[in-house]
Design brief:
The chain has six helices and ten strands, in the order H-E-E-H-E-E-E-H-H-E-E-H-E-E-E-H. By secondary structure, the protein is of the alpha+beta class. It has two domains: 127 residues, Beta-Lactamase, CATH 3.30.450; 98 residues, Dynein light chain 2a, cytoplasmic (Beta-Lactamase), CATH 3.30.450.
Length: 238
């Protein structure tokens, strides 16, 4: 079933690539920025970096819109000197599309967006049709396996939130968590985690992968043991 699902996703990714000749790369990822699949025409941007940044922009954009009383965005467009990066939001997944400005003569992005959104919806349905690809997030997995954890945040190494439960002032805290870990990296690039203990609280910032960190507040009579269990879950995600 997993192979069939990935085959269908690959077909839809290729279909996205063929929407216009200026589309250079397409990435399907989870809302937390974990890559499911990716295709490209020629030179490829690191899909893990692309998906992580897109997920961070979605979180920040959604937070900004919510703060001014608006609904969540349907899509985001980032424009650079040489390309446009379009991120289509679905309930559980993101479709990231890289468009080359050098090849987009005569292209009307507004006309193509309905096609991109339709394909993204079909991908969401394909991925949701099987239990082989769990929709549970990194944070969701930790909370399910460790009910004692009530505060956790996934973030980029640069300090952009990707998902948070139980914390307030998430943007400020994400910046602090990133700063804490960055200082650890100054001592050793092989840093796996940093913990700060105060009584029955242990605050941990740990590496998830080369682009992401997780911050977790562990409380109780043995917070260090709880933090170790969180690390075991995170290490099992790879």
């Amino acid at each position: 079933m997993a192979q069939k699902t990935l085959s269908e996703v690959a077909t839809l990714l290729e279909e996205t690539l063929e929407v216009h000749s200026s589309v250079r790369q397409v990435v399907l990822s989870t809302k937390e920025g974990v890559v499911v699949a990716s295709v490209c025409r020629d030179h490829e941007i690191d899909s893990k970096v692309l998906s992580t940044i897109s997920a961070a922009l979605v979180w920040a954009g959604s937070t900004a819109l919510d703060s001014i009383g608006s609904s969540k965005p349907k899509y985001l467009v980032q424009s650079t000197r040489i390309e446009r990066i379009v991120t289509i939001l679905e309930p559980n997944y993101l479709l990231v599309i890289v468009i080359s400005k050098a090849d987009d003569a005569g292209m009307d992005l507004e006309e193509l967006l309905p096609k991109f959104r339709s394909i993204a919806t079909r991908m969401e349905l394909v991925m949701s049709s099987t239990s082989d690809f769990g929709q549970q997030s990194t944070i969701g997995r930790i909370l399910e396996q460790l009910p004692a954890i009530t505060q956790a945040m996934l973030l980029t190494e640069e300090g952009m939130p990707l998902g948070s439960v139980g914390f307030e002032d998430t943007i400020e805290l994400a910046g602090l968590a990133s700063s804490i870990f960055s200082n650890g990296l100054t001592f050793s690039e092989e840093t796996d985690y940093i913990t700060m203990t105060a009584g029955e609280l242990e605050l941990m910032v740990a590496r998830v992968d080369e682009n992401k960190l997780i911050m977790v507040a562990c409380r109780g009579q043995n917070p260090a043991e709880l933090a170790e269990k969180v690390r075991d879950i995170v290490s099992g995600l790879g």
